[in-house]
Write a structure and sequence with these properties.
This protein is α+β, with helices and mostly antiparallel strands and 533 residues long. The protein has nine helices and 32 strands.
């Protein structure tokens, strides 16, 4: 390569006047590019010649420096030429050069990092979260090292809370089997259902009208049932009333339905709940719908008054809501969980806030959802709630459980009217909570089942603080319902028997059955559970 041919334009420019024409600058830049391409092959003599030329160029471009404001003339060179010069310096000379000028020593602003490569699994997990309106953020949670692991954990946890494979009411039990079929059992024989030699109905059987519909979740309220399909459709059936009509089936009337019937006004639903003549559904973008009995007459030592039972809005039909209605007071929030007591309701949002509405003796009443400030003050993000007769539970993302209400089943063994950590479970990461009447369940991330409250809780008498069910030692529990627990393989265990327990095909479990001394697996019944990824 003719190096002199490259140096010639530079030298020519350096010897020209400081008022060089635009054409001369263009020629200089072109020569600089050639210089940069050829520089790796320069000899030491040629490199020195190039440095000498740059000294002359520097003088051409620099105005007289203001007193005290001197800066390296190298900073005035074209970027291409400066790159070539710096590439020829050894480490010591480069350090000396940097020390001559603050602008050379100072770190330049960092360029924005290139976009992180996202694989197909993470892309799908983000799509699922986005479809449900969940914001997964752009920064990994503290302590997490992998987006895929973090998103898998969240998706699995959300699925566990959305997909409930078993539910128990007063005279029926509902199950979702491994194939997504809806099964039911009854405490008394029904038409066409066989009985065993002891007079008990056989194990839960498929609901014939639902065999072509894949079910992912079930709920039951007294003698009414709800089922959620994989397509987000909700089906209800049962008597529809208890004493006075409540419209708990959501079909616009107070009539009964002998077979599961789709609630036409609901679609793209992800969660369902039922309790004490009320029902709820949450769709994929977090909108909460409720229906059923919204108010009851309560005697408070004076005249009877009509108090709200937790639908979240004012009532239009004698305290009843016959079709699903959105809780507009939560329209700015994305609801991810709901739990019913007899007289109040709890809802938890994707932001981790817990709301209360309805009536309880210790907190009077609130027709519209009201945030529980005592939980907000903990600065924890709550992901699940549960409610009993007169107690409530709230679970944090980190697995801490808060309980409050009257002492029977709040987990503290004493009256606790504001939320407080359940001491017996501190240090254990709880992943599931369940409450009903005067008892509660908690399942840890190791699959341990803890129960407490009144009644036959696999103990001899009542237990007012959480205690592990030793009869399930070594069994990883993945789902719970009243008196029942399912392990990670879908096997359902009877934890205790109680009055009018729905028939489960395990022998002498009837209206007068004694406490179950140890958990009993139900033969030939496997439910669909969400396991760890």
């Amino acid at each position: 390569m003719n190096v002199n041919r490259i140096f010639a334009p530079l030298a020519s420019f350096a010897s020209s006047s400081n008022t060089a024409s635009v054409a001369a600058l263009v020629a200089l830049r072109a020569a600089t590019r050639e210089f940069q391409l050829a520089a790796p092959s320069f000899s030491d003599e040629q490199a020195a010649q190039g440095l000498a030329i740059t000294d002359v160029l520097r003088a051409c471009f620099l105005p007289p420096a203001a007193s005290g404001q001197a800066s390296s003339p190298l900073l005035k060179l074209p970027a291409e030429l400066l790159t070539v010069i710096l590439s020829r310096l050894d480490t010591r000379d480069l350090a000396r050069l940097a020390a001559t000028c603050l602008l050379l020593w100072r770190d330049a602003p960092s360029p924005p990092p290139p976009p992180r490569a996202i694989g197909p699994v993470e892309t799908e997990l983000r799509r699922r979260a986005g479809a449900r309106g969940l914001d997964v953020g752009s920064s990994l949670p503290e302590g997490a090292t992998s987006w895929v692991a973090c998103l898998l954990k969240r998706d699995r946890r959300d699925a566990q809370m959305r997909q409930v494979p078993l539910a128990v009411g007063t005279d029926r039990s509902l199950f979702v089997d491994k194939g997504g079929r809806l099964l039911h059992g009854h405490s008394t024989p029904v038409s066409g259902q066989a009985v065993d030699p002891d007079g008990n109905p056989n194990p839960p059987t498929p609901v014939s009208s639902m065999q072509d519909i894949r079910i992912v979740s079930v709920a039951t309220d007294f003698d009414n049932g709800l089922a959620l399909s994989a397509q987000g459709e909700v089906y209800s059936w049962g008597s529809g009333c208890l004493g006075r009509g409540s419209g708990a089936l959501g079909h616009g009337d107070e009539g009964a339905r002998a077979v599961p019937t789709r609630i036409e006004s609901l679609s793209r639903i992800e969660r369902i709940a039922a309790g004490s003549r009320k029902s709820a559904a949450v769709d994929e973008v977090g909108r909460l719908f409720t229906w059923g009995q919204g108010a009851i007459f309560v005697g408070l030592g004076h005249e009877d008054i009509l108090v709200p039972t937790g639908l979240g809005y004012e009532f239009e039909f004698e305290g009843h809501q016959l079709t699903p209605k959105r809780v507009e007071a939560l329209s700015q929030d994305r609801v991810v969980g709901v739990a019913f007591s007899h007289d109040f309701t709890l809802a938890v949002t994707d932001a981790g806030a817990v709301f209360f509405f309805g009536f309880v003796m210790w907190d009077e009443e609130s027709v519209l959802p009201r945030r529980i400030e005592a939980l907000a003050e903990t600065r924890q993000r709550f992901v699940a709630v549960a409610a009993g007769n007169n107690h409530a539970l709230a679970l944090t993302e980190e697995g801490d459980l808060y309980g409050w209400g009257y002492e029977a089943a709040n987990g503290h063994g004493r009256e606790q009217l504001t939320p407080q950590l359940v001491a017996a479970l501190i240090g254990r990461r709880v992943k599931l909570v369940y409450a009903e009447d005067d008892y509660s369940y908690a399942v840890t991330d190791k699959g341990e089942l803890f129960t407490w409250g009144t009644g036959n809780l696999a103990f001899n008498g009542s237990q007012f603080t959480p205690k592990r069910v030793d009869g399930l030692s070594g069994v990883e529990i993945a789902a719970v319902a009243t008196g029942l627990a399912a392990n990670a393989d879908g096997v359902v265990w009877v934890v205790w028997a109680f009055d009018q327990h729905p028939a489960l095909g395990v022998g002498a479990l009837g209206p007068d059955a004694p406490a179950v001394p140890t958990p009993i697996p139900i033969p030939m019944l496997r439910v669909r559970v969400v396991n760890s990824p």
